[in-house]
Structure to design on (542 residues):
């Protein structure tokens, strides 16, 4: 393939793809594989670093501000009025592979009903039956190809191994109290139940879209350029003809696209770029001095998953959140491999129905055998975790009712956007999380765990009932880093792109990333973002 380091920017290509994240790497590779000339532009740097490539080191990246600053945009939400005015971190990868290079690597497609609901709203070609071939094309499942799984794709997907007895015990207890099965494959025929987690990692290597689609693929027609910020889409007579870029030296130039420009800059980046280019809410654009080209609801429909970490002291959880323990694990991994450093830190995931759920699970459960800092990690400091062996269980809101916005702070392309996810704005979101917390407590009190759980360290006995939890929840609920929806796909006035991902009213311009989701999927969003890259390639190439 083309160089994966800083180099002279090509002046022209058939396709210009903005953002080398989860969808962008997939789309650029597929377009180049068709014989087209492609330029893939990434503001971040190379992902060829142990911090990114070693799966378990994500814990260090997220907990040490100096490390995080190397790979993250450093965004925060605006003060959240329904969450004690907290400014909540909005981690986004600023590196090849995008957020897929800094995530927990949980591989979750979501529920089949999610995609059928998109199709039912008019997004033809996006039902589960339509997107399943794209999901299968991207993955290499450890058991090979089946009716539901792909066996020869670029992204290796494997179950977590060496699972602690603490997690296994919780899984059995939760299955009993929640009335669900212990599943073999939640990405298969049915999602409902609890299971060993699946990860986009294998043999101690993170399988981001950069690793899977860009590494060792000899495509001379693909140029990958890093360290360059796109300032705007260049429009001529209602058509996107290229992008204006700003190098680290401040020099601006235009890269022209003879066919199309495709924005894959993520839920924040793609919406910000459209607005900087004059495509967005007219009144807002005028307020920041941007000339209006197309009045569209860009930046609306922002929504995100929330979870609440609950920590239980369990000696069987094995891992200790201390620097010496972490250092020993790193040395063992680098010398002989096979340790927790070479895998995701999560061990189990569940999908269950709350008492008021409809036909699909509305709660996700994340389980990891590590202590989680509390009550939140908002401050940009190194937070201290409980050094005792702890099982953390996170009841997760996967279908939020609350909707927020993304807006420009100014017309400066280097200024961070104003991110308002409107967390907990709708009371139903709070009630769902409280239901989840009560379900977790019920499982931890199961007879099979008697004597194995030594207490709840967070939130703890000070919040023993639902009323106390409700009062404390705004201080503890936090993002799972799954924002979506700011460039909504659809066929009505709420849509930014049509079902072919074309920006309404603008020729030669598409968006292909998690921002196009009309509604969020029921599970971690990275697999869906990869699918969107694959599906977009099929749409563009026919």
């Amino acid at each position: 393939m083309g160089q994966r380091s800083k180099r002279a920017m090509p002046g022209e290509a058939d396709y210009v793809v903005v953002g080398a994240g989860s969808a962008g790497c997939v789309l650029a590779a597929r377009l180049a594989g068709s014989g087209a000339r492609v330029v893939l532009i990434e503001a971040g740097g190379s992902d060829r670093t142990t911090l990114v490539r070693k799966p378990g080191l994500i814990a260090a990246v997220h907990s040490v501000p100096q490390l995080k600053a190397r790979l993250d945009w450093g965004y925060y939400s605006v003060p959240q009025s329904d969450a004690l005015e907290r400014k909540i971190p909005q981690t986004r990868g600023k590196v090849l592979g995008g957020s897929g290079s800094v995530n927990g690597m949980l591989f979750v497609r979501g529920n089949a009903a999610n995609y059928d609901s998109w199709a039912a709203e008019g997004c033809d070609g996006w039902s589960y039956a339509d997107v399943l071939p794209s999901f299968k094309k991207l993955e290499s499942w450890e058991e090979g190809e089946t009716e539901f799984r792909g066996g020869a794709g670029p992204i290796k997907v494997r179950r977590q191994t060496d699972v602690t007895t603490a997690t296994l015990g919780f899984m059995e207890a939760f299955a009993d109290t929640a009335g669900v099965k212990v599943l073999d494959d939640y990405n298969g025929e049915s999602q409902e139940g609890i299971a060993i987690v699946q990860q986009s990692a294998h043999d101690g290597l993170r399988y981001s879209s950069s690793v899977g689609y860009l590494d060792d693929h000899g495509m001379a027609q693909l140029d990958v350029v890093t360290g360059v910020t796109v300032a705007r889409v260049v429009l001529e007579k209602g058509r996107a003809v290229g992008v204006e870029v700003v190098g680290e030296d401040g020099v601006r130039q235009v890269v022209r696209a003879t066919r199309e420009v495709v924005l894959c800059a993520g839920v924040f980046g793609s919406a910000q770029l459209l607005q900087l280019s004059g495509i967005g809410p007219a009144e807002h654009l005028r307020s920041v001095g941007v000339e209006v080209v197309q009045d569209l609801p860009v930046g609306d429909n922002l929504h995100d998953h929330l979870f609440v970490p609950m920590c239980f002291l369990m000696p069987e959880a094995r891992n200790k959140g201390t620097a010496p323990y972490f250092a020993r694990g790193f040395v063992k991994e680098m010398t002989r491999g096979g340790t927790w450093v070479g895998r995701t830190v999560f061990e189990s995931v569940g999908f269950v129905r709350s008492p008021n759920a409809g036909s699909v699970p509305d709660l996700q459960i994340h389980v990891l055998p590590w202590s989680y800092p509390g009550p939140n990690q908002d401050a940009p400091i190194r937070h201290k975790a409980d050094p005792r062996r702890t099982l953390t269980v996170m009841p997760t809101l996967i279908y939020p009712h609350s909707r927020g916005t993304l807006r420009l702070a100014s017309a400066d392309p280097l200024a961070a956007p104003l991110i308002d996810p409107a967390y907990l704005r709708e009371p139903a979101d709070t009630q769902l999380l409280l239901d989840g917390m009560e379900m977790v407590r019920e499982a931890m009190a199961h007879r099979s765990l008697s004597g194995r759980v030594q207490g709840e360290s967070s939130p703890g006995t000070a919040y023993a009932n639902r009323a106390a939890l409700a009062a404390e929840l705004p201080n503890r609920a936090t993002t799972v880093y799954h924002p979506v929806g700011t460039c909504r796909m659809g066929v009505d006035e709420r849509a930014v792109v049509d079902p072919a991902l074309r920006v309404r009213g603008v020729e030669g311009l598409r968006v292909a990333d998690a921002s196009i989701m009309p509604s969020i999927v029921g599970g971690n969003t990275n697999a869906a973002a990869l699918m969107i890259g694959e599906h977009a390639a099929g749409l563009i190439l026919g």
About this structure: The chain has two domains: 1-72+93-155+211-304+402-408+481-542, 161-196+306-397+425-476.
